[in-house]
Specification:
single chain, alpha/beta, seven-stranded mixed beta sheet, 11 helices, 27% helix
Length: 473
C-alpha cells in the first residue's frame, strides 16, 4: 500500500512510465516535435485533440517540465484504446468502481512522489495567493526552489481540461469527518469526457470511481486542498487514467500583468516554431498587447531580436511591466537580466520602421469580439497586411498571424495577393473559438511596384486598442 512517508525513487529504481500532456489544440504535432527534439523520444498524438503521450525513464522527468509547448502534465496509470462501456449506466459505473482496485497504481504514485521533490509549486507559501506569474525559466528554477516542498496543497486549475471537450466536469466525494491530516492523503477525481454514446455523465463517473479510489487507498476526498488529482479522461471508447503532475497550467509562465485577452504562452511557442526564427532575425509583433509573443520568443529563441508595439498605452505598459518582471526574476536567480526586446507605442498602419527591415512578423490580430469589431476589421485587416508587407523583407520574409475572423482575413489576403502568399494554416481552439494561425510568405515583389501598394482604406479605423494578444477579442 502506498504511503506518503515513502521517499522518492533511488537511482537504482529508475523506471519507465508514460507521460500525458495537454497542448494547445492544433499544435499537437509541434509538441510531438519538441518532445523528440529535447527528450529524444517519440510522442503519440491522442485521438482526443489537445493531448500527446510519450514514454520516458524517470530520470528525465525534470526535462519534461521544461517543455515549452505543453499546458499540463500527468503520469498515466493505465490506458484503454477500445474500452467496452456497458449500455446500462448502473453496470458501467459499477465496472468503474471495480476497476479502481485493479489498476497498476504503483509506478504512477512513485512518479508523483518524485515529482513533488523538485517541481515548482506556485502559491504554496503560507499567506501567499496563487498568482499566474512566472517566466520561461520558472520550469528551470534554482536548486533551492526545486527542493522546496509544500505541506499544504493549493487550489489548482483543472490540469487536464481541454478546450474542445464538450462535457467536462469535476466532482469528488463529500469530505468525511476530519482525520489526522499529516497521515492522510487528500485527493480529488477529475473526469474529462467527450463523446455522445456514453450512458453516464462526467460527474457520475468521477463520483463513483472516486469513491472506489477512496475506499481502496483510504485517502480523504477534498475538492480544493488536495495532494493528488486523479484524472479520468474518456474520449468515445478511449479511456486514460492518470495522476496530475502540474498544479497550474504551464502556459502562464511568462505573464505577471494580464490583459483582457492575454495569449497563452504555449500557443505563442507554437506560433514561433511555425516561423522557425534564425539567429539575427528581426521579429516584429505590431499588436503586442501584454507582450506574450515577444517574451516567449526572447526566452526560447534569444538569438533573434524582438520589436513589440501597440497603439494603446495600457497595452504598452503591460508589455514593459512583463519584461521588467522577467528581467528581475532572471537577476534574482543570478542570470544576466537582459532580454532582446524593445517596446514602442505606434500606429499599426503607419509603423515607424524602414521598408524591408523585418524578417518575421508574428502577431495576434483582433477578432472583433472583445477588441474592435468585425466591421472595423474590414478596413483594418487590408491596411495591416499592406503595412506589414512594406516593412517585411521581400522573398524571404514571413508572417504568422492568428485570427478568428477568417472571412475578413481571407478577403484581405486576396486583396493583398501580390504581396503575400499563404503557405500553411493551423486550426486552433482559442478560448472556445475556432481560429486560424496563418503562415504567410512575403512575395518577391518590391514594395511600391504592385497594385496593392496604392490600396487605401476608406475610413480606416486603427483599433488594435489594448489588443492584449487579443485571441478572444
Amino acid at each position: 500500500m502506498f504511503s506518503p512517508e515513502d521517499g522518492p525513487l533511488d537511482v537504482e529504481s529508475i523506471i519507465s512510465v508514460t507521460i500525458g500532456a495537454t497542448v494547445p489544440t492544433g499544435f499537437e504535432h509541434t509538441a510531438a516535435e519538441e518532445v523528440y527534439e529535447k527528450i529524444g523520444v517519440e510522442a503519440r498524438i491522442s485521438k482526443d485533440r489537445g493531448r500527446i503521450y510519450f514514454t520516458i525513464s524517470t530520470d528525465k522527468l525534470f526535462q519534461v517540465h521544461q517543455l515549452r509547448s505543453v499546458d499540463n502534465l500527468f503520469v498515466v496509470v493505465d490506458e484503454y484504446d477500445q474500452y467496452q462501456f456497458k449500455e446500462s449506466k448502473e453496470e458501467t459505473l459499477e465496472e468503474l468502481q471495480q476497476l479502481a482496485s485493479k489498476l497498476p497504481w504503483t509506478n504512477a504514485l512513485e512518479v508523483w512522489k518524485l515529482n513533488r521533490t523538485f517541481k515548482k509549486r506556485k502559491g504554496q507559501r503560507k499567506g501567499a495567493k496563487v498568482k499566474p506569474s512566472g517566466e520561461a525559466g520558472d520550469t528551470t528554477v534554482a536548486d533551492a526552489e526545486l527542493q522546496e516542498q509544500a505541506e499544504e496543497a493549493t487550489v489548482a486549475d483543472d490540469p487536464n481540461k481541454t478546450e474542445e471537450a464538450p462535457d467536462t466536469e469535476t466532482n469528488t466525494q463529500d469530505s468525511e469527518e476530519a482525520v489526522p491530516a499529516a497521515k492522510i492523503i487528500k485527493f480529488r477525481v477529475t473526469c474529462n469526457r467527450a463523446g455522445d454514446k456514453h450512458s453516464f455523465s462526467s460527474n457520475e463517473a468521477a463520483r463513483d470511481f472516486g469513491g472506489a479510489v477512496q475506499e481502496f487507498f483510504q485517502w480523504k476526498a477534498d475538492m480544493t486542498k488536495f495532494d493528488i488529482e486523479v484524472l479520468l479522461n474518456i474520449h468515445n471508447t478511449e479511456m486514460v487514467i492518470g495522476i496530475a503532475l502540474t498544479e497550474e497550467s504551464l502556459h502562464r509562465r511568462n505573464i505577471s500583468h494580464f490583459g483582457p485577452t492575454t495569449l497563452r504562452s504555449t500557443l505563442c511557442y507554437g506560433m514561433l516554431r511555425l516561423c522557425k526564427p534564425q539567429p539575427s532575425d528581426i521579429i516584429l509583433d505590431p499588436m503586442c498587447g501584454t507582450g506574450a509573443i515577444p517574451l516567449e520568443g526572447a526566452l526560447e529563441f534569444p538569438a533573434s531580436f524582438y520589436i513589440s508595439g501597440d497603439n494603446n498605452d495600457m497595452a504598452v505598459n503591460r508589455t514593459v511591466n512583463n519584461v521588467c518582471h522577467i528581467q528581475k526574476r532572471k537577476a534574482d536567480k543570478g542570470s544576466a537580466p537582459g532580454l532582446p526586446i524593445d517596446t514602442v507605442r505606434w500606429d499599426l498602419c503607419s509603423l515607424p520602421m524602414r521598408t524591408s527591415s523585418v524578417d518575421i512578423i508574428i502577431t495576434d490580430m483582433p477578432f472583433g469580439k472583445r477588441i474592435g469589431s468585425r466591421k472595423k476589421n474590414w478596413d483594418l485587416y487590408p491596411s495591416c497586411l499592406r503595412e506589414m508587407a512594406r516593412v517585411c523583407r521581400p522573398a524571404s520574409g514571413k508572417a504568422v498571424l492568428l485570427t478568428q475572423d477568417k472571412k475578413c482575413f481571407s478577403k484581405a489576403l486576396f486583396r493583398m495577393g501580390g504581396l503575400w502568399r499563404k503557405q500553411h494554416t493551423v486550426w486552433v481552439n482559442v478560448g472556445g473559438l475556432h481560429a486560424g494561425v496563418f503562415l504567410l510568405r512575403r512575395t518577391g515583389a518590391v514594395f511600391g511596384q504592385t497594385p496593392e501598394d496604392v490600396y487605401e482604406s476608406q475610413g480606416t479605423t486603427h483599433t488594435q486598442g489594448d489588443q492584449d494578444d487579443g485571441q478572444h477579442s
